[in-house]
Design a protein that fits this description.
About 35% of the residues are buried. α5 packs antiparallel against α7, α5 packs across α8 and α7 packs antiparallel against α8. This protein has three domains: about 250 residues, Bira Bifunctional Protein, Domain 2 (BirA Bifunctional Protein, domain 2, 2-Layer Sandwich); about 110 residues, Herpes Virus-1 (2-Layer Sandwich); about 120 residues, Rossmann fold. It has about 525 residues and is an alpha+beta fold. The model has no long low-confidence stretch (mean pLDDT about 95). About 40% of the residues lie in helices and about 25% in strands. It binds glycyl-adenosine-5'-phosphate (GAP).
Length: about 525
């Protein structure tokens, strides 16, 4: 555990030291759970967004984009259920005065049971070697079965109690499980209370006439209220999707774990409108498609798992998370929800306008059902960044810090380094940059010995270093160094573009889906 905590501390400090993420308004000691993306972070974030957009919008004829406003008519949030039901169940520890999400305390307890079961499985795997049959072991080993059954029981009971708004039972469960405050170790808890997560703001110049608004807590509602506008103006036929990326705001009470849980964050959401009755088939389709998108980045299949929801949000009839193995364990990265016709019907009811689709094949009008995919851009950033950050011991015993980002997402694709700052080498380097910068984000660096420059680019995640030396003047060749293998090849300047393109093009990466 201590090792994991150290790893996470390294992630946070590396992000700051190398210009990826700073605490917001740091000169005023920061603002809790709000962060700024710095010069390299903004590039990585943009590349993740583009990777998503390309796979969703550009590659699918029946999905189009949208950029709806953050501020929406306040009735939107009444209709969507957020005013009444977008709550977190909170509990305070009377001794430490710390506030927790009651469901998170219980989920963390359940996760420990899962980890215990996992430990037994790993022990058996080592003991039995190649003969090990995990499926059989999990269904016959008494200890594993007991851990798994207990985990299931706890999550099911919590799901039921939260679904029925039975907060007394949520507290009873915490007491029965003897969950202690992580800070004080005491079990002296208050009652569980619901807390609405939306940020309020006002529109209008004078206090009397001001209209109470909310900062949107999800981007999805901007899509729902525009459903018919897009369908009609784009002549879209069901099934079709609308995709959007943008900021969302939540007054998270337990905001921790760096950019995992923020108060201002960015979502990448897609609502897929389908015929009623076909939603489950599309739900399965999008679960698979979205997992494949994640896997295409090569961060390791073992780092992902599905978690089917016990406790369904007020709008869903099926929901699953794609969880990722963050430095603090498996947690939600993306949600895939079958949202039924809840949102469109609610907006019909509150606005008095029809939000229906005329299906020419069925010759009937209906309110489409919706399958949603929703991934946090900041969480994607954290997943990619934390998994890519490595400390390596080299053959000569020295160590290097390297950010092995998927090359397609790297902020800078290549750094051009003149071996020395004279003899015309900087001029040739600049010329190479002039050529490459039309296609790639490239950097120039002439400061320090070339070995140190390599290390700096490794730490920034730059996939290629191109070194210009005296031989370049003779034969128009350079060395190209690969970040991950540190292998160096001598290549023609004229070939640089295609070598880089081959490793960083979105097409090559997305084709792995
Ligand atoms: N429209 C559906 C929706 O908003 P959600 O599960 O509440 O569903 C979707 O959020 C995704 O947004 C999450 O899977 C997560 O990646 C991201 N997300 C949610 N709250 C967040 C927060 N406070 N900070 C960072 N990302 C967050």
């Amino acid at each position: 555990m201590a090792k994991q905590e150290d790893l996470f501390k390294n992630v946070v400090s590396h992000a700051k030291e190398y210009g990826f993420i700073f605490p917001s308004s740091e000169v005023y000691d920061g603002l809790s759970a709000v962060y700024d993306y710095a010069q390299n972070g903004v590039e990585l974030k943009k590349n993740i967004r583009e990777y998503w957009w390309k796979s969703m919008v550009q590659m699918n004829e029946n999905i189009v984009g949208l950029d709806a406003a953050i501020l929406m008519h306040p009735t939107t949030w009444k209709a969507s259920g957020h005013v009444d039901a977008f709550n977190d169940p909170l509990i305070d520890n009377k001794d430490s005065k710390k506030r927790y999400r009651a469901d998170v305390l219980i989920e963390d307890y359940a996760e420990k049971l899962n980890q215990k079961a996992q430990k037994e499985i790993e022990k058996a795997r080592t003991r039995f070697g190649d003969a090990f049959n995990e499926q059989e072991f999990v269904t016959t080993n008494a200890r594993v079965m007991e851990y798994k059954a207990k985990e299931r029981q706890i999550l099911e009971r919590m799901g039921r109690s939260l679904g029925n708004n039975d907060l007394e039972d949520v507290k009873a469960l915490i007491e029965e499980l003897e969950i202690a405050c992580p800070e004080s170790g005491s079990r002296n808890w208050t009652d569980v209370k619901q807390f609405n997560l939306m940020f309020g703001t006002k529109l209008g110049a004078s206090a009397e006439n001001a209209m109470d608004l909310y900062l949107r807590p999800e981007t999805a509602q901007g899509i729902f209220v525009n459903f018919l506008n897009v369908q009609k103006s784009g002549r879209m036929k069901v099934p079709f999707g609308i995709a959007q990326t943008g900021k969302a705001f939540r007054n998270e009470i337990v905001a921790r774990q760096f950019i995992f849980r923020m108060r201002e964050f960015e979502q990448m959401e897609m609502q897929f409108f389908v015929r009623p009755g076909e939603e489950m088939q599309w739900y399965e389709h999008w679960k698979t498609t979205r997992l494949n998108w994640h896997l295409s980045l090569g961060l390791g299949k073992e780092n992902y798992r599905f978690h089917d929801h016990e406790k369904l949000a007020h709008y869903a009839n099926a929901a699953a998370d794609i969880e990722f193995n963050f430095p603090f364990g498996f947690k939600e990265l993306e949600g895939i929800h079958s949202r039924t016709d809840f949102d469109l019907k609610a907006h019909e009811q509150y606005s008095g306008r029809k939000l229906q689709y005329f299906d020419p094949e069925l010759n009937e009008n209906y309110v489409p059902y919706v399958v949603e995919t929703s991934v946090g851009l900041d969480r994607m950033f954290l997943a990619v960044f934390a998994t890519s950050l490595k400390e390596e011991t080299l053959e000569d015993g020295s160590t290097r810090t390297v950010l092995k980002l998927p090359a397609v997402l790297a902020p800078t694709k290549a750094a051009v380094l003149p071996l020395v700052k004279k003899d015309g080498l900087p001029e040739i380097s600049r010329k190479i940059i002039e050529d490459l910068k039309w296609d790639f984000n490239v950097a120039y660096d002439e400061k320090d010995a070339v070995g140190r420059r390599y290390r700096r680019q490794d730490a920034l995640g730059t996939p290629f270093c191109i070194t210009v030396d005296h031989q370049t003047i003779e034969d128009q060749t350079v060395t190209i160094r690969h970040r991950d293998t540190m292998k160096q090849d001598r290549v023609k300047i004229a070939d640089l573009k295609s070598i880089i393109e081959n490793e960083v093009s979105m097409k090559n990466w997305l084709m792995k889906m």
